[in-house]
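Translate structure to sequence.
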């Protein structure tokens, strides 16, 4: 992975909507990992400005995460090429549509998957690596509800390209565990939400830090499964489910702009608050550089502790 992305460490800062602007991505890349700008919450020209600012803020490689269901996808992809971005992570769509086009422009392509079937399809599409994201992850998730520790070895066994583990990883210990299962590196989201450079609202960051076991739940499976922190909006959604709502009724209740309202604007009652289960172990908001140092230090410490561990 470090060779693929030209980074010091095999760690990717996930490209998350309303959390991953140029400040977070550049800070991540400057810390020796791969920073990603999250294009999912950006209009095309807004993305262009973030790419330009990130380019000015770091000399290290960075990439852009692009949900393939984005309505302005053609314009987004052209901006990425025009601005010289060399790494693209795609998600939420069919990788065969854009992978070959991106690779013709000299771009390294990684696709996010939630199952063995989708990992194999991504490999067939020609991607350079896959992110295998388990059920624990925040935000939009897979319908199979396969946990990270079950998913990683299955995907590693089924494809020949590098596999990046995601979902429930926020510590060096968890990173080591994922790589022990066969992953070539990790993608981390929730831990970087609670960072100084994250573009998330401070109220949301503080709520993430206060999260406990059971504070999140996967819901809206009839539309697109998403893991949310429980709040007023979530509780109203649960009440609606008691009446067996149709997809249209769920869409009407969800409305538009709830993720922005919650994570970016800080409306903790009416907003959609996307975060992973691992939020329960996050208890502080730190600069990205310190987060990366802590990850590497714990990874190395635990690796040394178990280096002589054997069973007779």
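Result:
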């Amino acid at each position: 992975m470090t060779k693929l992305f030209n980074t010091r460490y095999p760690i990717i800062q996930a490209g998350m909507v309303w959390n991953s602007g140029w400040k977070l991505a550049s800070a991540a890349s400057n810390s020796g990992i791969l920073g990603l700008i999250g294009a999912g919450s950006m209009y095309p020209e807004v993305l262009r400005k973030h790419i330009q600012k990130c380019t000015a803020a770091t000399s290290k490689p960075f990439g852009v995460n692009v949900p393939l269901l984005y309505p302005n996808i053609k314009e987004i992809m052209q901006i990425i090429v025009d601005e010289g971005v060399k790494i693209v992570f795609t998600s939420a769509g069919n990788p065969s549509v854009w992978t070959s086009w991106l690779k013709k422009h000299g771009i390294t392509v990684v696709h996010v998957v939630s199952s063995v079937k989708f990992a194999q399809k991504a490999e067939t599409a020609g991607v350079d690596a896959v992110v295998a994201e388990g059920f624990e992850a925040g935000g939009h998730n897979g319908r199979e509800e396969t946990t990270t520790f079950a998913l990683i070895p299955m995907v590693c066994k089924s494809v020949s390209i590098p596999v990046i583990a995601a979902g429930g990883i926020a510590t060096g210990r968890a990173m080591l565990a994922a790589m022990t299962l066969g992953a070539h590196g990790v993608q981390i989201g929730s831990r970087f939400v609670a960072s100084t450079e994250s573009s998330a609202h401070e109220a949301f960051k503080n709520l993430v830090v206060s999260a406990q076991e059971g504070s999140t739940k996967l819901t809206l499976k009839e539309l697109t499964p998403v893991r949310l922190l429980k709040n007023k909006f979530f509780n109203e959604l649960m009440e609606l489910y008691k009446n067996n709502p149709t997809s249209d009724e769920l869409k009407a209740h969800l409305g538009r702009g709830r993720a922005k309202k919650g994570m970016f604007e800080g409306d903790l009652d009416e907003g959609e608050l996307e975060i992973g289960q691992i939020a329960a172990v996050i208890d502080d908001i730190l600069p990205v550089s310190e987060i990366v140092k802590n990850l590497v230090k714990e990874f190395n410490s635990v690796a040394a502790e178990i280096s002589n561990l054997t069973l007779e």
